[in-house]
């Protein structure tokens, strides 16, 4: 199911994505507890989540279901540069969504976040 969404450049249902993220974060925190007992790591869970959320309702649901975000990092560049970089990544990534059709479906989301960010 997830592969089909990605292949078509569609957004995976937020419940699925949030569940996967929650499980991965919980696993990493458990492993970090072990690392701290062995003398390294500060015991704090810090995660950089790339590509999610893409919509404001996803952001709210993630914060309700997993944890509040401490920071949002928004990197800005032109659509032309994004397209060039993603197509170049597609040459080696093996990702089925690194094609021009799927990539261009993502651009309206970037515009929506720019609008939200400029109004804050």
UniProtKB/TrEMBL annotation:
<dbReference type="Pfam" id="PF00406">
    <property type="entry name" value="ADK"/>
</dbReference>
<dbReference type="InterPro" id="IPR000850">
    <property type="entry name" value="Adenylat/UMP-CMP_kin"/>
</dbReference>
<protein>
    <submittedName>
        <fullName>UMP/CMP kinase</fullName>
        <ecNumber>2.7.4.14</ecNumber>
    </submittedName>
</protein>
<comment type="similarity">
    <text>Belongs to the adenylate kinase family.</text>
</comment>
<dbReference type="InterPro" id="IPR033690">
    <property type="entry name" value="Adenylat_kinase_CS"/>
</dbReference>
<keyword id="KW-0808">Transferase</keyword>
<dbReference type="GO" id="GO:0006139">
    <property type="term" value="P:nucleobase-containing compound metabolic process"/>
</dbReference>
<dbReference type="GO" id="GO:0019205">
    <property type="term" value="F:nucleobase-containing compound kinase activity"/>
</dbReference>
<keyword id="KW-0418">Kinase</keyword>
<keyword id="KW-0547">Nucleotide-binding</keyword>
<dbReference type="InterPro" id="IPR027417">
    <property type="entry name" value="P-loop_NTPase"/>
</dbReference>
<dbReference type="GO" id="GO:0005524">
    <property type="term" value="F:ATP binding"/>
</dbReference>
């Amino acid at each position: 199911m997830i592969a089909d969404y990605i292949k078509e450049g569609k957004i995976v249902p937020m419940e699925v994505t949030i569940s996967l993220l929650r499980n991965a974060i919980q696993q990493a925190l458990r492993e970090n507890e072990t690392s701290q007992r062995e003398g390294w790591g500060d015991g704090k869970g810090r995660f950089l989540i790339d590509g999610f959320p893409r919509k404001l309702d996803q952001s709210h649901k993630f914060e309700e279901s997993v944890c509040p975000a401490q920071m949002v990092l928004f990197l800005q560049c032109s659509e032309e540069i994004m397209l060039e970089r993603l197509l170049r990544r597609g040459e080696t990534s093996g990702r089925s969504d690194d094609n021009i059709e799927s990539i261009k479906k993502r651009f309206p989301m970037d515009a929506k976040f720019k609008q939200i960010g400029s109004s804050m």
